[in-house]
Amino acid sequence: MTSSAYPNTLVTDFDGTLTRTDFFQAVLERLVDDNLSIWNRYCQGSITHFEALAGYYRQIRIQQSKLLEMVNELGFPKNFANLVNGLRKNKWDVVIASAGCEWYIRYLVNLSDINPSPIVHANGGTYSDDAGLVMELPRHSPHFHPEIGISKASVVKAHMGLNRSVAFAGDGPTDLEPALLVDPKLRFAKGALARLLSDKEEEFIPFYDWDEIPNHLPEMDSN
């Protein structure tokens, strides 16, 4: 999905990119205790990335209000609305692409009260105190990926076209493929993604907080 009003698009990962803290890491550290047994099964190839995350999220057993308190502590930009509106004035839109769950992503995005709200491509999910966070594969998404839920590379490709610029920001291994699709001057990386790109001797713009990224984009050709 593209918009003639915003000819350029910043596709951004969410956990650890838009937020300082990854929701998955917060869940591991604060809410579940399984000694990484599920994650080790993923590393051994016996389950998918999606199944690993979903397995942990189903173990959460706290009141929804308490879980949302933790979500509020992930370090989502307090000035996100101003940042997005500023980008839009410079003909850049923001699209979120995540292997995480839309349940907590949309909660934080909606708090920013942006109109129109940024498009979010992520795994579906619902939360209840009894069943935990039940994550669902987005099988009807045009960007469906059976192992991680959403193909960020597919999202990036969907926004590419004649006289269009696409930027990408990420922090993890699942961000490598989409990062390599964009111009290095529009490639923003931190964490594991930065290390992987460095190992490949690929150029990128390092960042620490997401709110650094918009400062670079208005300087690009917005056509």
Q: What is the number of E strands?
A: 9
What percentage of the residues does DSSP assign to strands (E)? Answer: 15-25%
Walk across the major sheet and give the strand order: 4-3-2-1-7-8-9
How is the main sheet built?
7 strands, mixed
| Gross morphology | globular
In CATH terms, what is the fold-level topology?
A: Rossmann fold
Radius of gyration: 17 Å
Q: Any idea of the CATH class?
A: Alpha Beta
CATH superfamily: HAD superfamily/HAD-like
Task: Indicate the low-confidence ranges by residue numbers.
Answer: none
Query: What structural class do helix, strand and pairing data support?
Result: alpha/beta
Fraction of helical residues:
25-40%
Q: Could you describe the 3D structure shown?
A:
The structure is a single chain. This protein is α/β, with parallel strands linked by helices. It has one domain: HAD superfamily/HAD-like (Rossmann fold). The chain is 34% helix and 20% strand. It contains nine helices and nine strands. The protein has helices at 23-30, 37-43, 49-57, 64-72, 80-89, 102-111, 152-158, 176-181, 191-199, and strands spanning 8-12, 92-101, 119-128, 132-136, 144-145, 149-150, 166-170, 187-189, 205-206. The strands form two sheets. The chain has a seven-stranded mixed sheet with strand order 4-3-2-1-7-8-9. The chain has a two-stranded antiparallel sheet with strand order 5-6.
